[in-house]
Protein backbone atom coordinates (compact mmCIF):
# COMPACT_ATOMS: atom_id res chain seq x y z
CA UNK A 1 0.00 0.00 0.00
CA UNK A 2 1.43 3.37 -1.03
CA UNK A 3 1.43 5.75 1.94
CA UNK A 4 0.79 9.48 2.16
CA UNK A 5 4.11 11.28 2.66
CA UNK A 6 4.16 15.04 3.30
CA UNK A 7 6.74 17.29 1.63
CA UNK A 8 7.38 19.29 4.83
CA UNK A 9 7.94 17.16 7.91
CA UNK A 10 8.16 19.06 11.19
CA UNK A 11 10.17 17.37 13.95
CA UNK A 12 9.68 18.26 17.61
CA UNK A 13 12.57 18.05 20.05
CA UNK A 14 13.48 18.90 23.63
CA UNK A 15 13.54 22.69 24.06
CA UNK A 16 13.62 24.47 27.44
CA UNK A 17 10.42 26.45 27.86
CA UNK A 18 8.62 25.00 24.82
CA UNK A 19 7.10 21.56 25.25
CA UNK A 20 6.71 19.00 22.49
CA UNK A 21 2.95 19.48 22.86
CA UNK A 22 3.23 23.23 22.30
CA UNK A 23 5.53 22.70 19.32
CA UNK A 24 3.00 20.35 17.73
CA UNK A 25 0.10 22.69 18.45
CA UNK A 26 1.82 25.77 17.02
CA UNK A 27 2.95 23.87 13.93
CA UNK A 28 -0.53 22.47 13.31
CA UNK A 29 -2.10 25.89 13.78
CA UNK A 30 0.34 27.15 11.11
CA UNK A 31 -0.80 24.43 8.70
CA UNK A 32 1.46 21.44 9.44
CA UNK A 33 0.23 18.14 8.05
CA UNK A 34 3.06 15.97 9.41
CA UNK A 35 4.40 16.00 12.95
CA UNK A 36 7.33 13.79 13.90
CA UNK A 37 7.63 13.48 17.65
CA UNK A 38 11.30 12.93 18.51
CA UNK A 39 12.12 12.42 22.17
CA UNK A 40 14.74 9.97 23.39
CA UNK A 41 15.03 11.29 26.96
CA UNK A 42 11.78 10.14 28.63
CA UNK A 43 10.33 6.95 30.03
CA UNK A 44 7.19 5.36 28.60
CA UNK A 45 4.80 7.14 30.96
CA UNK A 46 6.34 10.52 30.13
CA UNK A 47 6.35 9.73 26.42
CA UNK A 48 2.65 8.89 26.45
CA UNK A 49 1.94 12.08 28.42
CA UNK A 50 3.27 13.87 25.32
CA UNK A 51 2.13 11.56 22.56
CA UNK A 52 -1.54 11.19 23.54
CA UNK A 53 -2.32 14.95 23.55
CA UNK A 54 -0.17 15.47 20.44
CA UNK A 55 -2.19 12.73 18.72
CA UNK A 56 -5.38 14.59 19.66
CA UNK A 57 -3.96 17.83 18.24
CA UNK A 58 -2.96 16.08 15.03
CA UNK A 59 -6.40 14.51 14.76
CA UNK A 60 -8.08 17.90 15.22
CA UNK A 61 -5.96 19.45 12.46
CA UNK A 62 -5.80 16.47 10.11
CA UNK A 63 -2.05 15.94 10.56
CA UNK A 64 -0.11 12.68 10.43
CA UNK A 65 1.71 11.77 13.65
CA UNK A 66 5.00 9.92 13.31
CA UNK A 67 6.99 8.88 16.39
CA UNK A 68 10.77 8.46 16.35
CA UNK A 69 11.58 4.95 17.67
CA UNK A 70 9.37 3.60 20.56
CA UNK A 71 7.44 1.18 18.33
CA UNK A 72 6.27 -0.65 21.44
CA UNK A 73 3.85 2.25 22.02
CA UNK A 74 2.04 1.68 18.73
CA UNK A 75 -1.20 0.44 20.29
CA UNK A 76 -1.30 2.94 23.17
CA UNK A 77 -1.99 6.13 21.22
CA UNK A 78 -3.33 7.23 17.84
CA UNK A 79 0.02 7.07 16.05
CA UNK A 80 0.14 6.77 12.25
CA UNK A 81 3.75 5.70 11.91
CA UNK A 82 7.30 5.47 13.16
CA UNK A 83 10.69 6.75 12.09
CA UNK A 84 13.71 4.53 12.79
CA UNK A 85 17.12 6.18 13.09
CA UNK A 86 19.21 3.01 12.98
CA UNK A 87 20.37 2.73 9.37
CA UNK A 88 20.40 -1.06 9.76
CA UNK A 89 16.92 -1.31 11.27
CA UNK A 90 15.01 -4.37 9.99
CA UNK A 91 12.30 -2.31 8.31
CA UNK A 92 10.61 -5.32 6.72
CA UNK A 93 10.27 -7.18 10.04
CA UNK A 94 9.12 -4.05 11.85
CA UNK A 95 6.46 -3.34 9.21
CA UNK A 96 5.22 -6.91 9.53
CA UNK A 97 5.09 -6.53 13.31
CA UNK A 98 3.23 -3.20 13.22
CA UNK A 99 0.80 -3.96 10.42
CA UNK A 100 0.16 -2.41 7.03
CA UNK A 101 -1.72 0.59 8.43
CA UNK A 102 1.47 2.11 9.88
CA UNK A 103 3.87 4.29 7.91
CA UNK A 104 7.50 3.38 8.57
CA UNK A 105 10.44 5.55 7.55
CA UNK A 106 14.15 5.15 8.08
CA UNK A 107 17.30 7.23 8.29
CA UNK A 108 20.08 6.92 5.70
CA UNK A 109 23.51 8.54 5.54
CA UNK A 110 24.77 6.96 2.32
CA UNK A 111 23.28 5.85 -0.98
CA UNK A 112 23.91 2.25 0.11
CA UNK A 113 21.88 2.89 3.28
CA UNK A 114 19.05 4.31 1.20
CA UNK A 115 19.00 1.37 -1.19
CA UNK A 116 18.99 -1.10 1.71
CA UNK A 117 16.06 0.67 3.40
CA UNK A 118 14.13 0.95 0.16
CA UNK A 119 14.53 -2.75 -0.62
CA UNK A 120 13.36 -3.53 2.93
CA UNK A 121 10.14 -1.62 2.26
CA UNK A 122 10.65 1.80 3.88
CA UNK A 123 7.78 4.13 3.01
CA UNK A 124 10.15 7.11 2.92
CA UNK A 125 13.80 7.79 3.69
CA UNK A 126 15.18 10.65 5.79
CA UNK A 127 18.57 11.41 4.26
CA UNK A 128 21.30 13.49 5.84
CA UNK A 129 22.75 15.33 7.51
CA UNK A 130 22.58 18.11 4.95
CA UNK A 131 24.43 20.45 7.33
CA UNK A 132 25.53 20.32 10.95
CA UNK A 133 22.45 20.14 13.13
CA UNK A 134 21.94 21.46 16.65
CA UNK A 135 19.01 19.07 17.10
CA UNK A 136 20.76 15.78 16.51
CA UNK A 137 24.46 15.74 17.35
CA UNK A 138 26.50 13.49 15.09
CA UNK A 139 30.06 12.92 13.92
CA UNK A 140 28.84 12.38 10.36
CA UNK A 141 30.15 14.79 7.76
CA UNK A 142 27.52 17.11 6.25
CA UNK A 143 26.49 15.98 2.78
CA UNK A 144 25.65 19.35 1.23
CA UNK A 145 23.87 19.55 -2.10
CA UNK A 146 26.66 17.52 -3.74
CA UNK A 147 25.83 14.56 -1.51
CA UNK A 148 22.18 14.79 -2.43
CA UNK A 149 22.99 14.95 -6.14
CA UNK A 150 24.98 11.72 -5.76
CA UNK A 151 22.10 10.07 -3.91
CA UNK A 152 19.52 11.10 -6.47
CA UNK A 153 21.61 9.71 -9.31
CA UNK A 154 21.49 6.40 -7.45
CA UNK A 155 17.82 6.85 -6.58
CA UNK A 156 16.82 7.36 -10.19
CA UNK A 157 18.07 3.84 -10.85
CA UNK A 158 17.23 2.00 -7.65
CA UNK A 159 14.68 4.02 -5.66
CA UNK A 160 12.16 5.48 -8.11
CA UNK A 161 9.16 5.09 -5.80
CA UNK A 162 10.64 5.93 -2.39
CA UNK A 163 10.34 9.59 -1.30
CA UNK A 164 13.66 11.08 -0.15
CA UNK A 165 13.38 13.63 2.65
CA UNK A 166 16.38 15.86 3.36
CA UNK A 167 17.21 16.37 7.03
CA UNK A 168 19.89 18.07 9.10
CA UNK A 169 20.32 21.77 9.82
CA UNK A 170 18.14 22.89 6.93
CA UNK A 171 17.08 26.56 6.78
CA UNK A 172 14.65 28.29 4.46
CA UNK A 173 17.59 29.58 2.41
CA UNK A 174 18.62 25.98 1.62
CA UNK A 175 15.31 24.77 0.25
CA UNK A 176 15.58 25.84 -3.40
CA UNK A 177 19.00 24.25 -3.94
CA UNK A 178 17.95 21.06 -2.15
CA UNK A 179 14.75 20.68 -4.13
CA UNK A 180 16.70 21.19 -7.34
CA UNK A 181 18.49 17.91 -6.61
CA UNK A 182 15.22 16.06 -7.18
CA UNK A 183 14.39 15.07 -3.60
CA UNK A 184 10.77 14.78 -2.50
CA UNK A 185 10.78 17.01 0.56
CA UNK A 186 12.35 18.50 3.68
CA UNK A 187 12.36 17.69 7.39
CA UNK A 188 12.93 20.67 9.68
CA UNK A 189 13.18 21.25 13.39
CA UNK A 190 15.34 23.97 14.95
CA UNK A 191 14.94 26.43 12.05
CA UNK A 192 11.23 26.41 12.90
CA UNK A 193 10.85 25.71 16.61
CA UNK A 194 13.68 28.03 17.63
CA UNK A 195 12.55 30.88 15.39
CA UNK A 196 11.29 34.11 16.93
CA UNK A 197 7.86 33.37 15.44
CA UNK A 198 7.54 29.61 15.06
CA UNK A 199 4.27 29.74 13.15
CA UNK A 200 5.61 32.24 10.64
CA UNK A 201 8.78 30.17 10.20
CA UNK A 202 6.69 27.09 9.41
CA UNK A 203 4.59 29.00 6.89
CA UNK A 204 7.75 30.28 5.18
CA UNK A 205 9.10 26.73 4.78
CA UNK A 206 5.73 25.52 3.54
CA UNK A 207 5.42 28.27 0.93
CA UNK A 208 8.91 27.54 -0.42
CA UNK A 209 8.02 23.88 -0.95
CA UNK A 210 4.83 24.56 -2.90
Automatic annotation (TrEMBL):
<feature type="domain" description="Thiamine phosphate synthase/TenI">
    <location>
        <begin position="10"/>
        <end position="192"/>
    </location>
</feature>
<dbReference type="InterPro" id="IPR022998">
    <property type="entry name" value="ThiamineP_synth_TenI"/>
</dbReference>
<dbReference type="GO" id="GO:0005737">
    <property type="term" value="C:cytoplasm"/>
</dbReference>
<dbReference type="GO" id="GO:0009228">
    <property type="term" value="P:thiamine biosynthetic process"/>
</dbReference>
<keyword id="KW-0784">Thiamine biosynthesis</keyword>
<dbReference type="InterPro" id="IPR013785">
    <property type="entry name" value="Aldolase_TIM"/>
</dbReference>
<dbReference type="GO" id="GO:0004789">
    <property type="term" value="F:thiamine-phosphate diphosphorylase activity"/>
</dbReference>
<protein>
    <submittedName>
        <fullName>Thiamine-phosphate pyrophosphorylase</fullName>
    </submittedName>
</protein>
<dbReference type="InterPro" id="IPR036206">
    <property type="entry name" value="ThiamineP_synth_sf"/>
</dbReference>
<dbReference type="Pfam" id="PF02581">
    <property type="entry name" value="TMP-TENI"/>
</dbReference>
<comment type="pathway">
    <text>Cofactor biosynthesis; thiamine diphosphate biosynthesis.</text>
</comment>
Amino acid sequence: MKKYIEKLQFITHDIPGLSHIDQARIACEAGAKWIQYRCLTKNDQELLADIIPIAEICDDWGATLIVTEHIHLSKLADIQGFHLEDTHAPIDAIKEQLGEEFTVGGTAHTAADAVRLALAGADYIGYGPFKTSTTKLTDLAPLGTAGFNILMEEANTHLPDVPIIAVGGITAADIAALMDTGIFGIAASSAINQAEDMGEAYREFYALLR
